[in-house]
Specification:
Layout: H1 3-20, E1 32-36, E2 39-41, E3 45-47, E4 52-57, E5 66-67, E6 82-86, E7 91-96, E8 104-109
Parallel strand pairs: 1-4, 3-8
Antiparallel strand pairs: 1-2, 4-6, 5-7, 7-8
């Protein structure tokens, strides 16, 4: 085994050990909302300014995501489709499904 291969192997072992011990930070997860059983979950969702929220339709019928104030609006999403929006300003954003208006949700954007 070459010296270069040994170094690579040692580096991979060290990284795997650090990951197993929780010493390596995982990439932050993108805040997400699942649409399932005619509900938005989580509801509300809290994010920081500049974060993107991704909605994914897990129902077997189409849904939309539409802000009451008109600041964002998805096209109809079929099963498995997603829509993303980046929130830049702090505030409370109430949204609903324009196909099923009784479905409502809220995004709270808080400055850190």
């Amino acid at each position: 085994m070459s010296e270069r291969s040994r170094l690579r192997l040692a580096a991979m072992a060290a990284l795997m050990t650090a990951a197993a011990l929780g010493l390596v930070a995982a990439a932050p997860a993108t805040p997400s909302v699942t649409i399932d059983n005619f509900t938005f979950n989580p509801n509300p969702i809290v994010v920081a300014p500049g974060e993107q929220v991704v909605w994914t339709n897990g129902d077997d019928v189409p849904h939309t995501v539409r802000a009451e104030d008109g600041s964002f609006r998805s096209k109809p999403m079929d099963t498995g489709d997603s829509y993303a929006f980046t929130f830049t300003k702090p505030g409370i954003y109430t949204y609903f499904c324009s196909i099923h208006p009784k479905m409502v949700g809220k995004v709270i954007v808080r400055a850190p």
